[in-house]
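Our collaborator T.R. sent over the components below with a one-line note: 'Predict the complex.' Nothing else. No constraints on interfaces, no templates requested, no preferences about which chain binds where. So this is a plain run: every listed entity goes in together, and whatever single assembly comes back becomes the starting point for the next discussion.
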Amino acid sequence: MSQQTSAIDCFNMKTDYQRTFRLDAKSSQKVLYVQGTTLKANLRRSAPPNSTFFSVKCTPNVQYSIDPPTQVTSHLSPITLDGKSVLLITMSSASQHENDSKLTVRYYGQNKDVLSNAILHLTALEISLDVDADRDGVVEKNNPNKGSWKWGPDGHGAVLLVNCDSERRYGKKLDTEVDYIAKLSDLRDMSEMVLRTRGPAKLPDGYKLTMHISQSDAESIRVYSPRPHSYSNFLPGVSSGFTRVLTSRVLSGQVPYLGGVAETSFYVEGLRFPDKDFDGLITINLSLLEPICRGLPETPIFTDTVVFRVAPWIMTPNTLRPVEVFVCSTSDNYGFLKGMKNLVLNSGYKLNICHEYMNRGDRWMQDELEFGYIEAPHQRFPVVLDSPRDGKLLDFPYSELLGPDFGYVTRMALRKDVSSLDSFGNLEVSPPVTVNGKEYPLGRIIIGVAFPTTTKGRNMTKVVQDFLWAQKVQEPIALFSDWLVVGHVDEFMTFVPAPDRKGFRLLLASPDAGYKLFRGLKNNGHGQAKLFEGRNDQKPITVDEILEDEGFQAENNYVQSCIDWNRDVLKRELGLDDADIIDLPILFKLEQDTDYEFRAVAFYPDMVNMIVLGKSLGIPKPFGPKVNGRCALEAEMCSLMEGLGLTCTFIDDFASYHRLLGEVHCGSNVRREGFDFKWWNLDM
Amino acid sequence: MSQQTSAIDCFNMKTDYQRTFRLDAKSSQKVLYVQGTTLKANLRRSAPPNSTFFSVKCTPNVQYSIDPPTQVTSHLSPITLDGKSVLLITMSSASQHENDSKLTVRYYGQNKDVLSNAILHLTALEISLDVDADRDGVVEKNNPNKGSWKWGPDGHGAVLLVNCDSERRYGKKLDTEVDYIAKLSDLRDMSEMVLRTRGPAKLPDGYKLTMHISQSDAESIRVYSPRPHSYSNFLPGVSSGFTRVLTSRVLSGQVPYLGGVAETSFYVEGLRFPDKDFDGLITINLSLLEPICRGLPETPIFTDTVVFRVAPWIMTPNTLRPVEVFVCSTSDNYGFLKGMKNLVLNSGYKLNICHEYMNRGDRWMQDELEFGYIEAPHQRFPVVLDSPRDGKLLDFPYSELLGPDFGYVTRMALRKDVSSLDSFGNLEVSPPVTVNGKEYPLGRIIIGVAFPTTTKGRNMTKVVQDFLWAQKVQEPIALFSDWLVVGHVDEFMTFVPAPDRKGFRLLLASPDAGYKLFRGLKNNGHGQAKLFEGRNDQKPITVDEILEDEGFQAENNYVQSCIDWNRDVLKRELGLDDADIIDLPILFKLEQDTDYEFRAVAFYPDMVNMIVLGKSLGIPKPFGPKVNGRCALEAEMCSLMEGLGLTCTFIDDFASYHRLLGEVHCGSNVRREGFDFKWWNLDM
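Returned assembly:
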């Protein structure tokens, strides 16, 4: 993939790069050499006038060659000085002492009389800024690919996390909002970078090492290092053990040269997720500066460069193992809560109840937040994406979820740009798929929007869409969900695990399947069976009455066409066959909403709006017509699911959720384990 | 290359995409079919209860198949109705009349008794939104690749120009600032897009065609179309012949369906160049909308999509043929002007003089602007990039250059962010090069900045750097130029054409080459020859005096090390050998500037700061020491250049430019022809 590099990348000197330097035939020079480079001098340029021959001799640690090549018979036998003769110098190992190596160029006149000597006193240094470019969790030495980033199993390039958790549970702040290291544990959320040096005890006078970043990158990272002298006295919770090397205001900073064989650790902290204006790539440079004199800028004579990519935020599909389930407790949802408790605890997962002091009556746990995670080779933790919906649950993600190794991210939108489609019941993710040979091993994000052909409809707000697209690793699909009053994709679709085919099925609400079931009931003599029987909050209706209502049929035909439209997109974008899709018998009705537009709501509890916990499904109890004492809708649902080895538990959400236009899924949320697949192994 | 597509791309239905529709076994349906798609109906879904068999018959224009395939013996022999049976329908040509084709599905019971008929009255349409996706200047019909963009000679995708010229010479505005078509000639700067339709005289009731774009893309284009009825009455200069179909505020608009075999032209106008936040790609969609009923949104049942890329701004290196030369006339530059006139007119090019009422004494024609061009297969014109420098020449680019087929672009920076490095003597471009196998057939942009290792230095302002990088086709190289008082790359480097090797030489200022020449003079007995001899505005100095001044030698050693640093970068980034580089004998001196930093200026007129007009070079007259009546610096320069077949003309710029810290190049500008190479043929 192509990537924009910043202008200053041209300053980078890579391994084996040549550095031109000036030979001085009049006095001896001290020259600092860095392992992996080649010093290059034009022999003619500084030769005394009338020089005709030259010879070179050097101490054992120094190697040289002449370009264009000449026949060198012995070190001291003079060579004809060509106008283009160039001397190339390398050194085989780092110096133990300053100026411990030497090279002399001797110039001769026509009669091989010595005209002058150019003497170099050489010091060799080894300098390597190192990162975990091979992504194994260990900072290896001088990876040849550390200066670039490549996706895929044969790729390379280090990974950076946005330090979006909070080391503190109380009085907490995002760690990115704090520009010091509050606790040692925070280092685990950063990427280690090691400066490895080898050479004499100190750098020659005036030379120094500087770490530097571009102005653009400075907005996205901080770099810390332990204070060398106080490190041993470091106490957890005390920040003074670390210094900020680079921040958004400090783009370049000197770093110590420790002498001998030394390693200095740095900790790189990511501050922002990839977004529309940030591709996630960060370049950090380390330069060796040569002094010139007072009033002149020091010259970088060697630059080592490393590249990081900020880890994307990754969503977790229904097929991943649940870790914990979240629901709200309200004054009126005791029955629902009891049903959920049974389901979750029987399935062996943890249930978290958000109590009323926090939810203030907002029961839509699905809508306020989306669970995901971020991952680097050395660390992974969950990150909650807080919706700009901001109902009364708005404080929950920050106040209750953010904590040590539990990250938080949000996108701010103007109040006027936020609609019901910004609730995260409208943000789902598919299981892994392959589409026309293209693999999506982390699945694809699914959101709902209005048809782009109209400017009237509601949409998911642009800042959230931009964020989702910029993560790149779960390329989003936009469905048409604005036909629903609430407008969430989870009102007509979900995914369940399956033992065969692609490892999952797409479940779609289907009025056609509903009508087919009801017509079958009627044909089998159950036309008088009643939906909603025994409920005192909903007038019962017979199968016959439903089938006779032509207007209702027309409304459902429209709903079916909307779902079919999405079905076509999903088949195309997820590479699905009809056999990968199961139609669930669900009817809708149209209501004129506040815009005077007709939009759909589920006619009876919307069974597709379920919670998926491994092989256990928690499904809104549909209150369908009973045949031989058993709800025909539940029976059909069970029959469709049991072939996949899934167990259906029907949960009564009628009064406390369904009548408020949501169901089980809208009222719950599941944090799941991350993928085994590492996002950096994607072929992009 | 990877590209971010916008969320709504998922709505695109491509050729051969299937559309699910509902068969109605109870009443006949009217169905609109679009060529290239497949209609798909689940036969079981709407079958009457107890259906066991079915049969299909249709009129000749209709083709169908059953999936999974069955043994069809005759049209009327009933087939067993499988639970998964799907009917796939295509039509071979567009309809002449509404509902002129028909397909019937008949359902049978167990005893092959007819249960019901689902009757489809079909109308076929051909719809194609077309662009010049094969880049030959002609809008071909339904290019299969029109919906994506690919670089390279085997690439595809249409090209859009930023309409940054001004059709009017007087009272002018950028055409992009005017949201109507002022003159018919303006259409040439836009890209034609054709809607081709074939079908009955009108669309069935309620259907309509809509063109639509995303909110992001709407900032970057407008779409116009001729008003159908007034088109024949169209008068040049009258805007009313065209309507705006899409603008930044109108993201979707209905377009007429003309009936029969019809073509409607649209004109797409680019509004912004690629930049940090805009990759240059634009998607335009055309959808066919199906009515549902009042209060329900129409459903897009077919969408055709085209993609454009906005043409980048391209710079022209010295090796391209000059068209016209620009210089300023000031109260004190008569001699310079005379020299330039002779050079330019003798070389056969046009000379444009910017007079004092416009330049107000600002003579730095190089610094205020950079000439470039933009190109599409159907149109190419020059575009001036106006520098944020904004000296007294600031009005010249807009007032004097902008005009019909002469475009203008600028980037606004805060006053405090603009430095001398923002003058475009600091913005150059190399001839075409190949670097480690990577081709740059349009060369590479070269700018000068400070070392990134310091935060003190001056830089080219970020908005201009971002713009240059975003053009992509001449990937920039950043050199170190902050060591100079003025800080422009043209103070130490230029390119001249050459008949051999890579087709050019890089010329570099070289104090070492200067000292070598002066030492040679001294050795040959010319130590008393004087620089600046006969000038009354500069004290003469002998060769001996220069060679004896050790401080001056040290300053020049430093300058040489700065240039060598850049030489290493240029060799690496342009793939040059030493033989591609010529060192010119030029000395510098250091001065303490307003920052109390020592920076360099040319000691005598800086010969590398030349104007290159084909094989004629206009070089600052150096006023070097004379040997046998001839300036030794001029002689050396001529000798170095004549091997390349280049002629040197020395122009006296001493008083009016050199002493003001500029030279011939700084005081002139050259508009050149564009490359023969088309930028879209780059392999990116």
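Summary for T.R.: Chain A touches chain B through 94 residues (CB under 8 Å).
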